[in-house]
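U., I forgot to send this yesterday:
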Amino acid sequence: MLAACNATPPTTPLSIRELPIVPEHVQKNIVSQDNIQLLYEDDATYYLVYYSKGNVLASMEVEENRLIIHLNEGSEQRKEAQPYVFKISKSPEQNLIEVFINKQNTPIDRMTIL
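Result:
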């Protein structure tokens, strides 16, 4: 008798972090004309690309099956927007992703499967 048969699989810890170095397979799929792009690697790993002229801080929360990503831009502005790339680890149960920029619900311009 195996006791592991009834064990629940471990859940993926939720996290979002900015990547100082973007993996090549992600870099080559970024579309610079899109303000917000979500890249899908697997059920637990996504990459969020956001172009901004200000500094960006990211956080996230879960409400039932929704993963809510909050991006907050600083008031300091550059002349040109730069890409911020965030790696997201989530649970497969969160099947809806919403993005809020400075508390405003914002649509995702493009979703790409890696």
